[in-house]
Design brief:
Layout (H helix, E strand, L loop, with lengths): L18 H8 L6 E2 L16 H11 L15 H12 L4 H4 L3 E5 L3 H15 L5 E5 L3 H10 L3 E5 L2 E2 L4 E2 L3 H8 L5 E5 L8 H14 L2 E6 L9 H4 L1 H8 L4 E5 L3 E5 L3 H18 L6 H11 L1 H31 L8 H4 L4 E3 L4 H11 L1 E2 L5 E3 L8 H15 L28 H4 L8 H8 L1
Parallel strand pairs: 1-12, 3-4, 3-7, 7-8, 8-9
Antiparallel strand pairs: 2-10, 5-6, 9-10, 11-13
Helix pairs in contact: 2-12, 3-12, 5-6, 5-11, 7-8, 12-13, 13-16, 15-16
Length: 440
């Protein structure tokens, strides 16, 4: 007689991986394209790696002195140091005052899980987490499993076709005091200095705890230091926060060295029973490159080259749509920065591209521009044109994008009287073309 399983009542779990990617992989159409990958891609349809990373990896593998021992719970100290310095700057006041440190984790989700676990046990405030819609699939389940309530927000204005980062003020203003705000990719926030001054005062008054998520430092401007200027500003203002460097480093910024030591001691306990020892090879590659001035310079050069390529792709897509006389405005394609950008079309048009043209795009319209290359750009743009003509024009900007101009002698208090329209800063033109030109 067969033995009954003790797991008879276990149901089949719903898929938590991307259905978009699953559908793309099962599609047999030869023209299929996926614009929803979460990593930087090459024209050969493989993840991009800087050449210096590949060379360093090969060198380490063949190094007879390479140590294969387990790392301690908190990880490789040299890796934590160089990764943290890349984030906040080598001469950051937090480093000078010894109130910043990190814990080597098992990737980006590992850092979020570790930080969320600590906040569940030690954060004195409502268990409410604000996160962007694009982060829900990756991080939402982690916070929900730990008992947090999720509240989603987005900066994308689908009517005006701009990223309205001015909405950040409304989010913070209406959030419960001492709640948690998960901020994604600081480099994409286009706010003048005096607006950041006002925001920092608001965050402090409401005691909002920041949990920053840095997925691709340097891919916005081509310069890792430039991308993190806002985060470094918060460090100088004495904020305490967590930061997820997705290379596998949970950075802790505390108010004092004593507080930092206490926080890290608790995090070490969590890591001991969650994974014991973090992966060593990738962290040693990063440490080798960032510790060597020549290799570091080569890595930065290759990063800047990739960002220039992304910008060129944006320009090409916009120009091809213009030549096709595709109805609508496409200026927003070059008004955004980084690998990702909103395509700015309707749900019906997105569905047309997926079902009729086999072009897989997330339902929020956020695409990865590194997935577009010389082999597929004509097919993609012609398909977008076809979708718009078949379904009808999508959202159109009601008014020209606005840029807030604040005189240097402005009093930050005067910003309180700004209208909601003036607060909409996402339409500010990208500074990257001028920036890259100045670097040449």
């Amino acid at each position: 007689m067969p033995t009954l399983s003790v797991f008879l009542d276990v149901p089949f779990a719903p898929k938590t991986t991307s259905k978009l990617l699953d559908d793309f992989q099962q599609d047999e159409d030869p023209n299929k394209v996926c614009l929803g990958y979460g990593v930087c891609m090459t024209g050969e349809k493989i993840p991009w790696l800087s050449p210096v990373v590949i060379r360093t990896l090969r060198r380490l593998i063949h190094d007879p002195s390479f140590n294969y021992s387990y790392l301690p719970e908190h990880g490789l100290e040299a890796f934590i140091r160089v990764a943290t310095e890349l984030l906040v700057g080598r001469h950051s006041p937090a480093i000078v005052e010894n109130r910043i440190g990190g814990v080597h984790t098992i990737g980006g989700n590992g850092a979020i899980l570790l930080g969320a676990k600590f906040l569940k046990d030690w954060h004195r405030g409502p268990r409410v987490v604000y996160l962007q819609q694009s982060q829900r699939e990756q991080y939402g389940l982690i916070f929900q499993e730990l008992g947090f309530s999720l509240r989603e927000y987005t900066f994308w204005d689908s009517y005006r076709l701009v990223s309205d980062t001015g909405k950040l003020f409304d989010i913070v203003e209406h959030a419960p005091d001492r709640s948690i705000l998960l901020l994604y990719n600081f480099g994409s926030f286009l706010l003048p200095r005096k607006r950041w001054y006002k925001l920092s005062k608001l965050l402090k008054r409401k005691q909002i705890f920041l949990f920053c998520d840095i997925p691709d430092q340097g891919f916005v401007s081509g310069d890792p230091d430039q991308d993190n200027k806002i985060l470094r500003y918060f460090v100088t203002q004495g904020f305490e926060f967590f930061c997820n460097e997705r290379v596998g480093n949970l950075v802790v910024v505390a108010v004092s060295n004593k507080s930092l030591l206490c926080i890290r001691s608790q995090l070490d306990i969590y890591t001991r029973y969650m994974w014991g020892s973090p992966p060593a090879l990738g962290s040693r590659v990063i440490t080798t490159i960032l510790s060597n001035p020549a290799l570091r310079m080569e890595w930065k050069k290759s990063l800047r080259g990739m960002v220039e390529s992304i910008m060129l792709t944006r320009e090409k897509v916009k120009e091809k749509l213009r030549l096709l006389r595709t109805p609508g405005s496409w200026e927003h394609l070059t008004g955004q920065d980084g690998m990702y950008g909103f395509l700015g079309i309707t749900v019906e048009q997105l569905d047309y591209l997926v079902t009729k043209k086999h072009i897989y795009i997330p339902m929020n319209g956020l695409i990865n521009f590194t997935c577009i290359n010389s082999q597929n750009i004509d097919y993609i743009t012609q398909s977008i044109n076809e979708a718009v003509l078949a379904i009808g024009p999508g959202p159109q900007p009601k008014e020209p994008p606005k840029v807030l101009v604040i005189p240097n002698n402005s009093d930050p208090k005067n910003l309180d009287h700004m209208t909601s329209e003036t607060k909409s800063l996402g339409a500010k033109a990208s500074p990257l073309p001028a920036y890259l030109h100045s670097k040449k």
